[in-house]
Amino acid sequence: MDDHHHKPISRKDFLSKATLGLGAISMASLLNPLEALAAPYNSTLGPHFPPRAKRVIFLNMIGAPSQLDLFDYKPILTKMHGVELPDSVMGDRITATAAAQATKPIVRPLYEFKQRGNSGMWMSDLMPYMAQVTDEICMVNSMFTESVQHEPAQMFTHSGSEIPGRPTIGSWISYGLGSENENLPNFIALMTKGNEGGSSRLLSSGFLPAEYQGVQFRGGKDPVLYLSNPPGVTGELRREQLDYLQKLQEQNFQTWEDPTIKAKMAQYEMAFRMQTSVPEVMNIENEPEYIYELYGEDSKKPGTFASNCILARRLAERGVRFIQLYHGDWDHHSNLPKNIPKRCKEVDQASAALIMDLKQRGLLEDTLVIWGGEFGRTSFSEGQLTKDNFGRDHHPDAYTVLMAGAGVKKGLTYGATDEFGYHITENKVHVHDLNATILHLLGLDHEKLTYKYQGRRFRLTDVHGLVVKDILS
Predict the structure, then answer these.
(1) Do 405 and 368 form a contact (C-beta atoms < 8 A)?
(2) Phi, psi at residue 243, to the nearest 5°?
(3) Which end of the chain is less enclosed by CB atoms within 10 A, N or C?
């Protein structure tokens, strides 16, 4: 009698193992006999080299702020205000709206630019608080990206692909480095209440295990949906339920060897621990008064960008690896003179306060802060230019990203654009380069941080990306 226990196997698994498994082994042995005998490559063993940063806080301005009104100073725009942009300047990558527009009059920046701090970094009067911390900032004025439309450009910024389905950068970092706090998710998103901007797709773990998925925290009584126990269910009863479920799922895993079973149970256990840890970290009522004064009057209101910046610092203190703040409504195709001052007022003081707060606590030394959107805006007006109103169209070929903290040079303006702010003339930095640099600062080699999926090893930077060593301290 045959006593052997035969585990069920799906048709898909049988075909893949039977038709591809032996062939893959044979091919590997022919190409590299020694490597074929080695253990499979595993990139989740921690940093590949000593890191400069332990965590990242990404202040993501959804909709694309106008770099020409905030950071990239171009005096000729004021001198030639209202004059047609020369045909020689225009490139091929423009939106359908711009292509159909009969005239493209140059638009001056809204507010005056000044050189700030000891570094002499140019910054607009629209950002008076950030202007006070320029000596902590590395301003990259030579960013460029692939897509001219919002959602594909946002996906590209986060995942290295314009098409949804790939893991986003927070998930890659969680996968590559693991967690420093077992009671909180490793990848957390905070969205401005009523002005969220960010899509849930930007939190996706893609084909990585589900435990690396980003988790959105909300302001108010229930920061994480469905986390609280229902009425009548105590913590003790919930613990008993999870223990029993763990036994059942362990039996399933022994039968099917499906890694999603383990991932699902890890999420259940994390949710149980979060029932205690999340209310503690989200309670900012005990912050001293000087913190509220530093971050601004909105910082006492749950769900505002300012209160989220305080939460970002609290999460950083507790070892969360990737913290993303989304703030929307930067898509100013029209009414820019009315709208961009509002957006700047909502984020300027709190953004600067976060940098100063991290510095005074000694956290800026190993925290990388990033400020930016998915692309830039044009130097010409979208639609009619009037005395009091104008807009700016999408511009993927030149925009600005700010960085501060662990491992980046302070007070540095890197890269340059032409006199119209339209094309990059010095030190181009592609999105893949930026992501490679972020991973490098975390001690991760972007070429080694891979995950095998559907027979191919994928990475955040695809087959591209160079570390921008000139901005590293």
Answers:
(1) yes
(2) -60, -40
(3) N
